[in-house]
Amino acid sequence: MSAETDAELFRALRRTWEELDPAPADLVDRMVAAVATADLSREYALLTLVTATELAAVRGDADALTMQFSDGTASVLVHVVPAADGLRRVDGWVDAPATSVELEQDERTWATAAEHGRFAFEDIPAGMTRLRIVLTDTTDAGTPAELRTPRFEV
Fold first, then answer.
1. What are the pLDDT digits (tens) for 2-44?
2. What angle do CA 58, 64, 67 make, to 5 degrees?
3. Phi, psi (deg, nearest 5) at residue 26
4. Do strands 144-148 and 128-138 pair parallel, antiparallel, or not at all (unpaired)?
């Protein structure tokens, strides 16, 4: 068969499908809605975790701060609690395999491992902070992938 004959055959098949089984008129809208809600249950679980304040009231963490950051491939949930001495405790959970987590403030850096996705920093002074999470995956260039959060106040 020649390319011209193939093209004619494909046109005939397309006409047949369009006549016998046309695509629903709302197919595009339904697909957009399906993609938009595909990860809704996980997001709802995170929102429930973030907004659950019963434990905070019991523990007296009225000044606690909970944030979530994501770059589309990995997400991190961060919980900041003030300590009695004016310093902060930063707890976090990352949903991707990570080798290390660094907390950066100006010229200072603290580092820890992310065991089973969980990490914590104690005795952190108040100030503008950023997290750098080194993931076990690598980029196309062969360098370790990482998630860097925007700066936030602790």
1. 777 888 999 998 899 888 888 888 888 788 777 766 666 555 5
2. 125
3. -100, 20
4. antiparallel
